[in-house]
Design goal:
Blueprint: E1 38-46, H1 50-61, E2 66-69, E3 85-86, H2 94-101, H3 103-123, E4 129-130, E5 134-137, H4 141-156, E6 162-166, E7 169-174, E8 178-180, H5 182-195, E9 199-201, E10 208-210, E11 213-216, E12 219-229, H6 234-237, E13 245-255, E14 267-269, E15 274-278, E16 284-288, H7 305-318, E17 324-335, E18 341-346, E19 349-353, H8 359-376
Parallel strand pairs: 1-2, 1-12, 2-9, 5-14, 12-19
Antiparallel strand pairs: 3-8, 4-8, 5-7, 6-7, 10-11, 11-12, 13-16, 13-17, 14-15, 15-16, 18-19
Helix pairs in contact: 1-5, 1-8, 2-3, 3-8
């Protein structure tokens, strides 16, 4: 089975993110080479975000001959443009996951992401990741009640969480969560993948996928298995997922260092619609307000005036006065049930994506699982 990924301008990356320019972890991304006219590999990985790079690195470390491709390059999508939160759990808060997926599965999924969090912290350089915990802060009484429910469920299941009251507000502290520079993480993973022998090709805009063949224009890659590790735009690459996956624009901004704000931990607020972290060097990186935009669903990855005005207002609420130095956007794929796609969608095509804005841990875990299934066979699926 094959498909076409339309060559539309709305999937081109918009303005560059501040990541890569600020903070102690700022790194240049490794360069990719243009694809040859024809090549072969044991496995072709489509997507050079964190999940695709994790899959490619795992494959190479296990001795496979690997080609990894991207329409634009390393970290060009949401993997290099997100808020940098490393939060255990999936897109739904834990008590909501229990209600939606059943208690045993929700706990298993949460513990799976906790293990991935430990692995991420252990394997990334200390300037890239900081294990400082995370805060969920309530914006009103209704959210405060929901946060209290979340806290009770986490503690009942023996998962790390504490009640919190401090300068950021009242809510829940998860002391084991972490924050990172997502751009730098992709740079590190890409460097390691190249050192392990992975061939990184870009630009490679997939137009046909299936039957052991991946093509982009005249360039052709033949591979026994293909791992698709794409989030935003996944439903365009694989139209059979269109009833399950919808791409949504996410927007962010960054300021110069601000001495008047002191955020020691990343903060989730307003049901997770707003999120902010402050770098050790003082810059504020703030995102969210997608529920206040006029047309974020299916929108191109370019900042919009309405959402950026909301982000500016949130900066003022925080007391920030430093100038904004960058505004950017990305596309993330959301699923109807908020569970990621992690399955063989076509024969020989293993797909991971649709992280509903929470791919920083789930994506890399899914990517490595797909790599193992590509080599060992078996069924690709989330933990039961």
């Amino acid at each position: 089975m094959t498909s076409t990924w339309p060559a539309t301008p709305d999937v081109e990356p918009g303005p560059a993110p501040a990541w890569g320019q600020v903070g102690p972890a700022a790194r240049a991304l490794p360069t990719c080479t243009p694809p040859p006219a024809s090549t072969t590999a044991d496995v072709c990985v489509v997507g050079l975000g964190a999940s695709g790079l994790s899959a490619a690195l795992r494959l190479a470390e296990r001795g496979a001959d690997v080609v990894a491709v991207d329409a634009h390059g390393v970290a060009s999508g949401a993997a290099g443009r997100n808020g940098g939160f490393l939060l255990a759990g999936l897109a739904r808060f834990h008590h909501d996951a229990v209600a939606s997926y059943g208690h045993a599965r929700a706990v298993a999924l949460y513990r799976w992401t906790l293990a991935e969090l430990d692995r991420t912290v252990e394997t990334l350089p200390p300037d890239v990741v900081r294990r400082v915990g995370s805060l969920r802060v309530a914006a009103d009484a209704e959210e405060a009640a929901d946060a209290a429910h979340m806290l009770r469920q986490l503690q009942a299941d023996g998962l790390p969480a504490e009640a919190y009251e401090g300068p950021e507000g009242r809510g829940v502290l998860v002391p084991t969560d972490a924050v990172m520079d997502p751009h730098a993480r992709c740079a590190v993973l890409a460097e390691r993948a190249q050192a392990a022998g992975v061939r990184l090709y870009a630009p490679f805009r997939v137009d046909r996928l299936g039957d052991g063949l991946v093509t982009a224009g005249q360039a052709r890659i033949r591979a026994r298995r293909t791992v698709v590790a794409v989030d935003g735009g996944l439903e365009a690459l694989l139209p059979e997922l269109a009833d399950r996956v919808t791409s949504v624009r996410l927007q962010m901004l960054a300021t110069e260092p601000d001495d008047g704000v002191a955020l020691s931990r990343p903060v989730y607020r307003r049901w997770g619609y707003d999120y902010v972290q402050q770098l050790p060097t003082g810059e504020i990186l703030l995102g969210g307000c997608r529920d206040r935009g006029s047309a974020e669903e299916g929108a191109p990855p370019v900042p919009s005036d309405d959402v950026q005005r909301c982000l500016d207002a949130e900066l003022r609420r925080l007391g920030a006065t430093a100038p904004v130095v960058a505004r950017w956007a990305a596309r993330a794929a959301f699923t109807a049930d908020r569970l990621p796609v992690c399955e063989e969608v076509r024969p020989g095509v293993l797909v991971v994506g649709g992280y509903s804005g929470h791919g920083n841990l789930v994506g890399t875990a899914c990517g490595r699982s797909a790599a193992d299934v590509a080599l060992d066979g078996g069924r690709l699926a989330l933990p039961a």
